[in-house]
Every structure is written in C-alpha cells, then in structure tokens.
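pls ignore typos typing on phone
adenosine monophosphate + seq
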Amino acid sequence: MKVLVVGNGGREAALAWKIAQSSEVTEVWVTPHHPATCRLNAKIRSASFSLYELILREQFQLAVVGPEIPLSEGVADELRAAGIPTVGPSAAAARLETSKVFAKDVMRTAGVATARSAEFTDVREAEAFVQMTDWTGVVVKADGPAQGKGVVVAQDKTEAIAALRGFFDGSWLGMKIPRVLLEEKIQGPELSVFALCHGLNYVNLGSARDHKRLKNDDLGPNTGGMGTVAPLTDISVAEQSFIDGMFEDVLFEMHKRGTPFTGFLFAGLMRTEGGLKVLEFNVRLGDPETQVLLPLLQDDLVPWLKGCASGEFPEGAPSFSNETAVHVVMAAPGYPGTEGQQVLLGHTVSWQAFPQEKMIVFPAGLTEKSGEWVSRGGRILGVTALGASVEEARRRALGVIKEVAFTGAQWRTDIGGAV
Ligand code: AMP
Ligand code: GLY
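k done
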C-alpha cells in the first residue's frame, strides 16, 4: 500500500521512518518536499508536487497529517472526502488545539481537572479581572492559532496586563486577537501523554517529556523543543487511571458535540499538589516527542493507523520496548528567532553510518539544494538513541550529535535529566 504523510519536519520524518518499516507498505510519500527524509528508507519518496497533485498522481490507501495548521485548515476532511482513510481530526475537532476557549469548555463540561479560568472579549474587563483576582498568578492565552506564541505565563499583574493589551491590540502576534483566556498559574512538573483515537475508542501511546528551553538546566529562551525522553517511569497507578479517564471523558464530550475525534491526541499535563491537571490539548503528535515514542514502539504502526482511520483497532494494546529513548535536537546557529533564514551547512550527514535500531538521525529543517545541505534556520535535525537507562541513551545520542554537528549548531547535553 501507499501511504501519504503530510508535514515536513522531524515529527513527519519519524512517522515516515516507522511507516516505511511495515511489510504492508510499498511507498511512503512525504509532502511538502523533504528530500532528507528519503535517506531514512528506500521506500520513502518526496517531490515538489502540491498535495493536490500528489493525491491525483498516486493512489494512497492511508494518510497521516502531522502538523496542526493543515488540520485546522481542514486537510484531514479533504483527504477523507477524496476517499483516503486518514489519521487526523476534522477542522471542527482540531479546535481542541487551536481554540483555548473551546478546549477549556470541553474540559469543563467533561469534568476534566484543569486550572481555573475566565474568558474575555473586552480588554477593560480583562484588565479589571487581573487587578482584582486573588489567583496566585495569571497566565494569558490568546484564543486562536498562534504558532506557539499565544501563551504568556506572567511574572506579575503588570506583565499580565501588558500581554492581554498586546493580544487585543495586535502588537503581540501581529494580528488582533478577539478573545483571551485568563488562567490561574499552577505549579509542578509537566508531562505529556498520547493516544490514538477514533470516536469513543482509543489506544494509549505512552508518555514523554519535552525540554523547551534552549540551554541546559532549563535556561535560555523558549523553543519548539530541544529534546525529549520517553517513557516517564514515575507515573503512578492513580495517575494512569486519571489519564485513561481523561481521554475517555474528552472523547465522549467531542462525540456528544457532533465533532468526534479521529487522530492523535496529545495532552499536556502538570503534576500539582492537588493531582494532575490538564494544561492543553494538541490534536497531533508532538515534535520532537514523536521521535522518542515511535522508536520505542515494537509493533508495526500501520495496523494501528488503519485502525484509527477505520475505527477498527487491532486487538490488545500497542507493545513498546522497555528501553528508554532520548532525542537530542540540533538547532541552527542563532535559533530561536532565525526560523525561515537559510543557512548553508557545508557538509553532508552520513545517515547510514549508525545502526538504525538504537541510533537514528531524523532530519527536521534540513533540505538539499544543488547538492548542498541547507537549514531552514530552526531545528536542523535530531538524534534518537535507545538505552537501558536515560544516561546510556543520552550518551549514545550525544556521541552521534558530535559526529554530525555543523558549525555553530546548538544542542543540550542534559536531555532526560529530570525524569
Ligand atoms: P499551553 O500551550 O496552554 O500548554 O501553554 C504552554 C506552556 O505554558 C505550558 O507548557 C506551561 O509550561 C505553561 N502554562 C500553560 N498554562 C499554565 C498554567 N495554568 N499554569 C502554569 N503554567 C502554564
Ligand atoms: N514539542 C511540543 C509540541 O509539539 O507541541
């Protein structure tokens, strides 16, 4: 069968790599064009066709949509309308990620534990609320797609007011935000959990932790994620039952609203003194969480993806290795803030030099132009390594990173440190 993967970052490289290992699969096409991904497996193809040209040219039997933007624009609906079984929510269901107010409303109605909140369409009312509230702190969230820049965890009331004014008047995101969610600031370690869902059914895909800051010890600016570790070994039985109940309740609520959820559901949680609370939902796999989850999956992913698209999951649960996976991201010089700026990297990456099971180099914002490797200015690539412990996996990953490093590249050496 031929499988289509929509998206051209590190997450989609990991999806294509895993899908290509299936004996059922003859070709995996990645779009937009991402030639570096083709190095991972001879079955992986990519070309400069548009999505529409590609689905007219090839007969796909399955599609997976990676990023939230095409999902929020209805690409999964369009692929299904074209008769292609698709893993990815409808645009209506993708609002669980793109609208903070919608997600909060679903959580509230479904009875899922989350931080207290209030929503505002009027800047003066929002300011008055911030001045009067006795919350321990305020988090300001823009309601709408904001490409990771829509959340401000304010240090104090002055910063909260500056953020909400900036969202409403357009100076913060370059566009006016009509609705803002204010949330109580809660505290504790964060963890992420993943499920593959179809309507009321789902299978757990495990847990992971991202490291968002650029530098070791969680210093430096926020990024899209500098590395991940999986699985998290400190999730208690009671917490796992909270997680299972949370997925069930949210799926039931989405079904009840007439917007059933099909695809990957990623919940960002915080372990507070009062137990786990949900911070956010993403309607896709994480990047770079996917790069640790999929190398740990021992099963063929394709029957699970087909099950998600059709509603008929295989019997039982997906089986995972009992090893630990660490993924270390190598970012462009100057990142973050250099996204979209092309950087010539000067040497080639020898993908084949590493044993593919324990150490995998996943290309991300890396492309080939006239025989040269060029970075898109963001996360260039990442290395996943497996090991019996976090330390072993990290040591292996860092060994590979040093071999493939480009001049000026940035990476962290402490990924997985705080598991
Ligand atoms: P979100 O996109 O809603 O997950 O927010 C991005 C990040 O902001 C989260 O990963 C947290 O680190 C932080 N955050 C969001 N909501 C809260 C909250 N209510 N309290 C404390 N931190 C938060
Ligand atoms: N790594 C965080 C995300 O994919 O949203």
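Residues 131 and 158 are 9 Å apart (CA to CA). The domain at 190-310 is CATH 3.30.470.20 (D-amino Acid Aminotransferase; Chain A, domain 1). more later
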